[in-house]
Write a structure and sequence with these properties.
It is built from 19 helices and 17 strands. It is α/β, with parallel strands linked by helices. The radius of gyration is 23 Å and the shape is globular.
């Protein structure tokens, strides 16, 4: 698959395609990650001389960056050129934990408990200064790496200032920005200090194209550009997929940014093949043993992320057992909640609450041969696929989510069809809403009822819906998703 662009391609993201662990003996072990960008980038031809610019996240990464001068060993990256930036650890921590994770992530996912937070004081201003330095490091590296006329695809809220900084350094480049998260509604976005709210928008609008996973997030972004910056927006949605335009003139010649929507889908070929390897079969057998014969399963697989709403999912399941005793001993909630952002106290507390509530439900309802909730917290991809295959019901109930690929992956690998209980606040709702049982993620009673409806869905209907869900979920595979963005940059 070749890009029509005929130019060098650069990708910039905070987290790169490989991470390193540093052993006590000083040896480095590389671990390659997956995801849409990895498959997308590996599918374009070598003529694009692609370079991936990312940050060193931990001690292992920093050591690898130091040993290689930042240009990682291709043996560790599957041949992909990766430039890993060894940014000062304090600057990185303030930018990543302070601004990206504790502020921008919270704003776009509506996570604040507003009577007390956010509170933007001197500490935040210092973190913001680090965020600017961290974005500058990326802009400098990209400006240095990019050939004349190259296409640069900048990812996410971590790097919101990069497009604007890069345009100043290299006006010859074609720059795209992609948001993998939701975008906040303007009233919520305006909690940010005014100057910072403007800088973030202007940063992204430094791109030729800014892209989002759904029309809803794209429209929210345009609403912010209009109301915060006074930009002109030409909206052509939702009639068709024609991109919209934001144009603004911040004291200089008007600059135009096209707004696109590219709804990343599941990688069916990869998933179906991977889900039938022996390690997945082994884990299915082990899970079946734990679940017990003849029982139905409600499966969820998430990072233990505040926006995923795992706690209300458990509360809804407890409600189901309370309201409908006929399900006791006949259903198991299989919850995989993998560690995430454990540097932040609020994530550690949330993780503890998931464990506490699980124990409480198991103590309240569990019997000799029945554990109502099976919780696993150790990341295991093969076991996740095993759970996808045997799920009767998949519970995907985020407070807010850019897309949620679990909702798309389960129907693709499900063995016998799976009913999907889906939050209307997940980006995936835009494509899967019609075939799912849709919930308001805050409504615990409503979610409990939805679980009952899903568990009692007749097998024929379940199988039919799963087929339609799988078709919708795979409409835009990662390779095409990536190429579409790249080709849009030439238009
Ligand atoms: O899933 C949305 C997303 O923004 C990804 O694009 C990004 O890689 C991830 O979240 C960030 O998570 P982490 O902080 O664990 O790298």
């Amino acid at each position: 698959m070749a890009s029509q662009l005929g130019a060098q391609v650069l990708v910039a993201s905070n987290r790169g395609p490989v991470s390193y662990a540093l052993g006590e003996d000083g040896a480095l072990t590389a671990r390659r990650g997956g995801g849409g960008l990895v498959s997308g980038l590996s599918s374009i031809g070598p003529e694009t001389e692609a370079v991936w610019v990312c940050a060193a996240l931990g001690d292992g990464d920093r050591e690898a960056a130091r040993r290689t001068g930042g240009d990682l060993d291709p043996a560790d990256t599957g041949g992909q050129r990766v430039r890993m930036l060894d940014i000062d650890p304090d600057i990185f921590a303030a930018a990543y934990n302070g601004v990206a994770n504790s502020t921008l992530w919270f704003v776009h996912h509506l996570l604040y408990q507003t009577p007390l937070e956010p509170s933007f004081g001197a500490e935040f201003r210092a973190q913001w200064a680090s965020y600017e330095l961290y974005n500058t490091a990326f802009a400098d590296a990209l400006a240095d790496e990019a050939a004349e006329g190259a296409a640069v695809l900048v990812q996410d809220y971590h790097l919101a200032l990069v497009p604007g900084m890069l345009r100043e350094r290299r006006p010859d480049l074609r720059i795209g920005h992609f948001s993998h998260t939701p975008w906040a509604p303007v009233s919520y976005y305006r909690m940010l200090p005014d100057d910072i709210a403007e800088k973030l928008l202007l940063g992204i609008l430094g791109a030729d194209r800014a892209a989002f996973l759904t029309h809803r997030w794209a429209q929210a972004f345009m609403g912010c550009a209009q109301q915060v910056l006074g930009a002109d927006c030409l909206t052509q949605w939702p009639k068709d997929d024609t991109p919209s335009l934001v144009s603004f003139a911040p004291g200089r010649a008007a600059h135009k940014t096209w707004i696109n929507v590219h709804g990343l889908g599941a990688d069916a070929d990869f998933l179906r093949e991977r889900a039938h390897r022996p390690d997945v079969n082994e884990r299915m057998a082990a899970l079946r043993e734990q679940i017990g014969p003849g029982r139905k399963t409600v499966v969820r697989v998430d990072r233990t992320e505040l926006s995923k709403n795992i706690v209300r999912g458990l509360l809804a399941y407890r409600q189901l057992l309370a309201d409908r005793p006929e399900w006791r001993e006949r259903v198991v909630h299989v919850a995989f909640a993998y560690p995430s952002r454990q540097d932040l106290a609020v994530y550690r507390e949330y993780t503890a609450e998931v464990q506490r509530l699980t124990d409480e439900i198991n103590a309240e309802y569990g019997t000799e041969g029945w554990t109502p909730v099976i919780l696993h917290v150790k990341d295991d991809f093969a076991r996740s696929l095993a759970a996808y295959r045997l799920a009767d019901v998949a519970l995907v109930n985020p407070i807010r989510d850019g897309m949620n690929l679990v909702a798309k992956e389960v129907p693709v690998v499900s063995d016998e069809g799976c009913a999907l209980v889906l939050s209307r606040e997940a980006g995936a709702y835009e494509e899967l809403g019609e075939e799912a049982i849709v919930v308001n993620p805050y409504d615990v009673l409503g979610t409990a009822e939805a679980l009952h409806e899903a568990l009692t869905m007749p097998p024929g209907e379940r199988a039919e819906r799963t087929k339609r869900l799988a078709a919708a979920a795979t409409a835009l595979p990662p390779q095409q998703w990536f190429l579409d963005q790249l080709n849009a940059l030439t238009a």
